[in-house]
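Table S2 (text version). Query chain:
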Amino acid sequence: MSKALLSNIKPLSKQKAKTRTNVTQYVKAFADEVCEILRARDERWEEALQNRFLEEDIDPSDIAHLVFDKIRDCVLGLQFYEFFTGKGSRFDGFAYSSLLKLLARYKLFPELDNVLAECIHSAEKRPTLESLDDVINAYVEAGLLGKALDVYSFGLKAYDSVPGLLACNSLLNGLVKGGDIRAAWGVYNEMVKRDGKSSDNYSVCIMVKGLCNEGNVEKGRRLIEKRWGKDCIPNIVFYNTLIDGYCKRGDVGKAYELLKELGKKGFLPNQETYGAIINGLCRIGDFHEVDEVMKEMESSGVKPTAHIYNNILDSRLKYGFLAEALEIRETMITRGFKMDVVTYNTIISYLCNSGNIEEAEKILEEVKHCGLVPNQLSFTPLIHAYCRRGDFDTVSRLLMEMAECGHKPDLKTFSVLMNGLVASGKVDDALSIRTKIMTMGLHPDSCIYNVLMSGLCKKGRINDAKQLVKEMLDCNVTPDGYVYATLIDGNVISGDLSTAEKLFKCMIEKGVDPGVVGYNAMIKGYCKFGKMREAALCVSTMSKRRIRLDEFTYSTMIDGYVKQNDLRSALGVFSHAFRLNRSSNVVAYTSLVNGFCRCGEIAGAENVLREMQANGTPPNVVTYTILIGSCCKLGKLVEASSFFEEMLMARCSPNDVTFHYLVNGMSNNAIIPRSGVSKTMLLDIFEMLISDDDGVPISAAAYISIVACLCLNGMVGVALKLMDGKRMALDSVSLVAIVHGFCAEGRCGGEGWEGMI
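Corresponding structure-token output:
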């Protein structure tokens, strides 16, 4: 029933609610007979009904309301209605009222909508105000608040009166829970301005709760005082509502004031009172005060509930107090509280997120041993964690266990699995899962397709990704901005900028918002191919459309300008981003370091390095490697080795490219300046080796020097990996350095280095 339809309804001059005149026993008996004919479900029931009505000379409309009231079967009731209205019978408002009640009781909403639309057009068919109560309650219970509000408005217009108190309170409660406080106020005000019987204490309490949920606790208190007088709060229920409101708002101090006030007025705090206070303290992480309130609660003879314990446990986990949370768990078990699956799931989720997957599995086993049945939320965190680890055998086992517990994996679970497979590079396995779930009747959504396409594009399988787009469209799944961004990026990676541009234009023409992800994908493409003017136009369009440029946008633009040797423009973008506090990421800084190095300005590059460190952004392996490589190319070995040793002291592990630059640099510049220059440990060892009478080859000396430096800086593992990769023989210098490294790590007891000897 639409609002446009409601607007055409006019009240019949303050029409009063209709009442039915007395029905004779004879008519009641005939109605019973009609019901029996319907319940018999005979093939010729229509003929039997028609004949009986002709024999008794009774109009169906005279007993329709009785039939609908007595039949208690919505299917048979509808058959009766459709048969006689189809033959031209005109039912009155009482008949329609009874039919509406029947349909509302069984929650047949399509039929209910149709009957409502049929009966509100005329005064003759108009249902009673009482019947609307049932309809409103049914709609509210089903969450159809808009329709419930329409029926309420219809009753108000048609009868100039609000529906019954229970129906109005039900609607009020639904609107408040649904967050529509404005509509709730409209209903409440109509209830209050009536004769005083249209609202009660519960009505006020609902509104106060709604206001408190929005943080308007003071307004909620004023509403109470408006009804009962200044400083008058009538009972503990209202106190609990206000206290809970303050706690949810984070104002525990005012909640405590109310706690003291209610005590002075002779009210005793109950489980709800203490529970609200504890919940508020848990929100702000004040667990010392939580313990104090728990002591006060128990000394007052009020026993904590499982819900209170669960709140404390959950909050301690959120604040990272695992040991304390597990103590709460033990307390619950000791005191006879049976933990529910929700509590266990909270622990499992926390353990998985913190990397304690094995402990999480133990908790899952405990759930089974306690006689509880794990649900999907018990398994999903574990499945996600093992996917991240790449342990898909365990994932398969968990999926089987989940099915054995009666929980068929849903789309979300499979999405987690496919995401993990793609992240591990197993795109074909993920595609197989996609095929399997489709045979199960589940249809992948745009998020799943996006993950699969992303994996294919990263492997250069752009044509397979395009086939997935075709499949999406065939399955009526509309590609969103993320899907387009993935395809654009895939074409850019494969070197097809033209197709990427066409996709970007197609997305905009179809009304799909590219968002920051879509624009970034296109900007990345333009920068990769040196089209900085087009990239800058994309940035300008983003600004005009008020799309917030993120760190990736700025980093990509800076890197693009650097690769075009346009350091001035790169610095301009960096300065603009820095003013907006959006440049503090390692990629942007590293791009600038690269820009200065490309121009041979090592001093400028070092200034950027020091600035990023001062701003709390640690350089990464790429940053240091660019500096080391550039210094080596310019023959500045002292500076290169200095950056290398700084890198090791910062616990940043070098890679093969770093080693390659250093070895080439030392091999091509073997004459080390001796006087007036402060050399580094790396060059000291290197000079000693190449000056030795044994004549160590320069490249071998370079590698040995690097291995020694790594070990002396606590990176024995990296050193051993380098030696293994280059098949280096173990010489005396390397051996001493490795032994030193093992001892520094506390591994001198024969573990590791003695085996090497």
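Notes on Table S2: The domain at 214-304 is CATH 1.25.40.10 (Serine Threonine Protein Phosphatase 5, Tetratricopeptide repeat). Residues 289 and 295 are 10 Å apart (CA to CA).
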